[in-house]
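[#protein-structures] MJ: dropping Alpha/beta hydrolase here for a structure pass
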Amino acid sequence: MADMLGTLRRTAMTILVVLALASCGGAPETTSSPAGDSSGQTISVAGSLALRWGEGDYGVVLAHGAAFNAASWEELAVAIADQGASVIAVEDIDPDAIRDAVEQLQGEGVADVALVGASAGADAILDLASQDPELADQLILLSPNATVEGLGEEPKLFVASKDEPVAHVSTELAESSPGEENAVMILPGSAHAQNIFATDQAGPVLDAMLQRLKRFAAP
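AK: finished. structure tokens for Alpha/beta hydrolase:
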């Protein structure tokens, strides 16, 4: 039985390792101005500031890292909206605020919503998803900082850089979480969460996220 469970777990987890030149490294930590410019429409979600792109039938809520803001998702949000999604990037990354954004989309008739987060935003999403495993259609998390229990069967993609201190968390979450569509993407370098987008791994990560969202979007 133990051997069978181990085989099932390995089958359920797809490990994606992106190869790069040995000289590739992570970018230094960067921050985003709280008043960063964005093409997104400024909206209110349960009294909190957020940015909105698109009017599609599939929903995506973005939760930034502690050193970033909602506008920092600009490039990804535009690309997701171009795939036919309604995208909300929350400024407040408290789990309740993320839930409010999901419920706002659902109130507009968007039944299925993916949650995408980075670092502190990823942690907030894990907290929320462990409390309400049926809430999200799928999860995409960059550099989460701690493992949790109680996640649902929804597809999950975890992304981290090989040499950052929390890289093992993504691997452990992909291995331990329920569901048959869990994957981990381990990158070269040490860039943490959204700082990955300032490295030469930005393109592969962006492509992987868009493909994942499109693949598991509700028909």
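MJ: nice. The CA atoms of residues 173 and 205 lie 18 Å apart.
AK: one more thing. The chain has a mean pLDDT of 86.
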